[in-house]
Amino acid sequence: SADYVNSRDLGLRDIFIRTVEEDQTPHLAQITCPTTLLYGGKDTETPPALGRTLHRLIANSTYVECPEFDHISILSRGRHQLTTLILETVKRGTS
Fold this sequence. Notes:
The protein is α+β, with helices and mostly antiparallel strands. 45% of the residues lie in helices and 13% in strands. The chain has four helices and two strands. Helix 3 (48-57) links the parallel strand 1 (35-40) and strand 2 (61-66). The longest helix has 16 residues, at 79-94. It is globular.
């Protein structure tokens, strides 16, 4: 990924690798607040299968997959879907 390449150029490669590979799975059951997991269906860097696994392990979570987006495009072209999802979540929380 571009982040990986940039981390190498900055001398941060080892930190980047340790951060990305760190397994937080044992701690997921401790998450008690409502959590929304939003994944791009074409994401190869953090694939939807990872999101579905996290969803199973986080008790109060919602999994949303946007099938036409990848790792980056979900933040650019998908920004409208993200905004709508956030606004709906906030509205539900205040109702």
